[in-house]
Design goal:
It is a single chain. The protein is α+β, with helices and mostly antiparallel strands. 38% of the residues lie in helices and 14% in strands. It contains 11 helices and 11 strands. It has helices spanning 9-15, 53-67, 102-114, 133-145, 154-166, 204-207, 209-212, 225-243, 251-260, 292-306, 314-330; strands at 19-24, 30-36, 41-47, 78-82, 87-91, 172-174, 183-186, 189-192, 199-201, 286-287, 290-291. The strands form 4 sheets. A 5-stranded antiparallel beta sheet has the order 1-2-3-5-4. A two-stranded antiparallel ribbon has the order 6-9. A hairpin with a 5-residue loop joins strand 1 and strand 2. Helix 4 (133-145) packs antiparallel against helix 5 and helix 9 (251-260) runs antiparallel to helix 10 (292-306). The longest helix has 19 residues, at 225-243. The protein is globular, with a radius of gyration of 21 Å. The two termini are 33 Å apart.
């Protein structure tokens, strides 16, 4: 019964009867099938019951409709919906193994996705939410627990950072979880799927994924500086072509914001359940391709380097560099996060 395809009379009247339904892998928050429809193969996705199921369904539908306006397709076509059962029927696309420099095309597609929304779409999706003062306190608490000497003024710098991120302008269509696995590399380009956490905000918050290591994702990767520069150039070029405007500065702020969030060390089901940074001195845990300590060491290094000459985060650079060194001294067998996606 749990695996039975949900495809009601309204969908059958609109699209025909599905055949050869085959269950696909998905998160516990959804059920997904590949089916044969009279016109073409399709993917059927049902958002499962839960306290936020209706919201996740509404976000996904709204995001797919906004994204469909992109001149170059960046999502599968949304063929039909059944709001009562929280079902979406999507165009089926064949995924190909990504190239070694996949983040370059990925970044350009991400820019086109972000550019699909604008100021007129305010209210269609929630605003992106950044770290808060509790995240700052938890991060500084971790520094103390690691025995890192205090840096005068750093608490104020991080509080100001939280304020800047909370006020960041922009109406980009943010995916919410633009991770390896939520990107389909097709013959016609990259398409994104799974928009249950979509929001509106500054595109820099997701461009930062490339450097900071995909913070909401099971699959962490660390690309070379040369490849990162190519990818970020591709993002800026695609954004300019789609919007006629330049990408604003603020990538260091975005990366630092992700570093502060302890919830970016655990899978979604465990977020908002406690202070995960406080566990780091006593416990390490594996999630996907890296452990929590591996993820944190990578992010500390990224932020320390990016903020070394930053006018508003210079003290944070000192602190994050010291925290990274202390972690590597304490756990010398920690390895870098993977350079390639699985």
């Amino acid at each position: 019964m749990w695996s039975r395809l949900t495809f009601g009379d309204g969908l059958r009247a609109e699209l025909g009867s599905p055949r050869r339904a085959r269950r696909l892998g998905s998160s516990p928050r959804s059920r997904v099938w590949r089916v044969e429809l009279p016109q073409a193969p399709a993917v059927v996705k049902q958002i499962v019951d839960g306290p936020d199921a209706d919201e996740r369904y509404a976000r996904e539908v709204a995001a797919l409709r906004l994204a469909s306006r992109a001149e170059t397709p960046v999502v599968p076509a949304l063929l039909a919906t059944d709001p009562v059962e929280r079902v979406l029927v999507l165009e089926h696309l064949d995924h190909r193994r990504p190239a070694g420099d996949w983040i370059v095309d990925y970044a350009a597609a991400l820019a086109r996705l972000h550019a699909a929304a604008g100021p007129a779409d305010a209210g269609v999706l929630p605003r992106w939410r950044g770290p808060d003062r509790a995240d700052v306190d938890a991060f500084l608490g971790l520094a103390t627990a690691l025995g890192v000497p205090g840096v005068p003024g750093v608490a104020e710098e991080l509080a100001d950072l939280v304020g800047r991120l909370g006020e960041a302008s922009g109406h980009a269509l943010l995916h919410g979880d633009p991770c390896p696995g939520n990107d389909l590399h097709t013959a016609g380009g990259i398409r994104f799927v799974d928009f249950e956490q979509a929001s509106l905000g500054s595109g820099l918050m997701e461009l930062a994924y490339l450097r900071i290591g995909f913070p909401t994702c099971w699959c962490v990767t660390s690309a070379s500086e040369a490849l990162l520069e190519r990818a970020e150039h591709a993002y800026r070029t695609a954004w300019r072509a789609a919007t006629g405007s330049e990408v604003r500065d603020g990538l260091a702020d975005a990366c630092a914001g992700w570093l502060l969030r302890g919830d970016a060390l655990v899978e979604r089901a465990r977020r908002e359940t406690g202070d995960h940074l406080a566990r780091i001195p006593h416990q390490d845990w594996k999630w996907g391709t890296a452990t929590a300590r591996q993820r944190l060491v990578h992010r500390l290094g990224v932020v320390s380097r990016m903020t070394a000459d930053h006018p508003s985060l210079g003290r944070a650079s000192v602190l994050t560099g010291a925290m990274r060194s202390r972690m590597l001294d304490r756990w010398p067998t920690l390895r870098p996060v993977p350079a390639q996606r699985p």
